[in-house]
Amino acid sequence: MTIHWHGIRQLRTGWADGPAYITQCPVQPGESYVYNFTVSEQRGTLLWHAHILWLRATIHGAIIVLPNHAQPYPFPKPHKEEVLLLDMRYSCCLELNSSFNDYKPDYSKYAGEWWKSDVEAVIDEAMASGNAPNVSDAHTINGHPGPRSDCLGQGGYKLVVMPAKTYLLRIINAALNTELFFKIAAHNLTVVEVDAAYVKPFATDTILLAPGQTTNVLLTTDQPTARYQITASPFKSSPVTIDNTTATATVIYAGTSASAATILADRPPQNATPIAAAFTQSLRGLNSAAYPSRVPLRIDHSLLFTIGLGLADCPGCANSLRLRVVADINNVTFVMPRIALLNAHFFGIGGVFTDDFPARPAAPYDYTGAKQPENLRTMMGTRLYRLAYNSTVQVVLQGTGMLFPENHPIHLHGSNFFAVGKGLGNFNPDKDPKGFNLVDPVERNTIAVPSGGWVAIRFRADNPGVWFLHCHLEVHTSWGLKMAFVVDNGKGPNESLLPPPNDLPKC
């Protein structure tokens, strides 16, 4: 087991970041490891989860970092706060106060997927057969799928509210493989934060979260006293099979009759790309005096990463073609090492990785065109991209049509980034940068690359260590859609990676 504190920057404490074989070896059965780190200059809603194979489905929860008392929310203080987790098998909420030295555990609320099967067996079977893995059996809100004909229970999660109040809902998508729309019948939601970064508030009746993303919204209870349905329904951006179930919960105004009917939500179609695009295009950084947008304007590394699927020979696979699906960045399918990359980097252990990850595709082509290359094979390797301390980076994440186009939520460890541009089709380096938002772009740690399109992100490499970049659809990570940056130490006293703790697990 390993645990990743998703969105916590881990300044100089990469040993506590958690991805297996990237920053640490797994904690073995019967042994222990203390994750020791400081949360600095961050506040908001994040999550923690297991980060080895598919165990994220079983172990995950919320991290709530409260703002300092001297710097309250940049919006009216809500009457009450609630965590809504989209997906749960087991979860726990970790709440940090303004001095970051206390916590309050609470068995809490989220959304995502429910699996009747052992998820490790699901992915093991898929890797052995060369085929896509089975999908989950249901989606959940705070551990409940809601009323279903095949699932007897208490009717799902219930949120009881007082009329004429404002509630802060902290919504987290902890699903393995599904992007989810979130709605509350007859209510608008005011979006105020994503991925623990404040945004310019805007109203919407539908929000979209990719796996790993968080969104804070204000819910004002300004409707007649009644019961209102909450839905978490899938967004399908490609022809792959998905779990098409909708999780439901209920907002109940205090004083509502127990026999009152529930007002149903008008959930979006699964392929509601315009609704998804409208939501993401509305996100802008707050960029206030207290929370400025420090977007890098001068770029040291300008990278183009194509992301997509491919095929690899698989003599032992149980299919007639003896092939298996793989995923890649710049046609490189990442091979997991047997020694943690951070350990190899810190101690100078050779033969574990190379630092020659390509800055752009070796053979450019029409990435999103109808005619894709006939050769769907990819290169295998444990290849990293090296960055000098404090260098600035722009990465254009370019989706491809290899096998088929698909939406990819990409997560960067160790740094937040600014999403400065986005578009459909192929990125045009001569025209598209002219439309970049370098004033108030949204700041995130996980960004959804649109199906058949691209996004451009910028960040500053001011955190020494080895930092994972990967698709947060777990099936794509398993197939190799991942790479890592190695950030060298700087020259100042606080610009170097700290030594590993004594109890760091060994491989």
Helix fraction bin: under 10%
Terminal residue distance: 12 Å
Which structural class do you get from the secondary structure elements? mainly beta
Count the domains: 2
Largest sheet: 7 strands, mixed
Global Rg: 22 Å
Please state the average pLDDT score.
93
Tell me the CATH topology of the largest domain. Immunoglobulin-like
Number of extended strands: 30
For the record, what CATH class of the largest domain applies?
Mainly Beta
Question: Could you explain how this protein is built, in words?
Answer:
The protein is mainly beta and 507 residues long. Helix content is 7%, strand content 36%. It folds into 2 domains: 71-92 and 100-281, Cupredoxins -  blue copper proteins (Immunoglobulin-like, Sandwich), CATH 2.60.40.420; 301-487, Sandwich (Immunoglobulin-like), CATH 2.60.40.420. Strands 7-6-4-9-14-11-12 form a 7-stranded mixed beta sheet, with no helix packed on it. Strands 8, 10, 13, 15, 16 and 17 form a 6-stranded mixed beta sheet that branches. Residues 88-92 and 97-109 have low confidence and may be disordered.
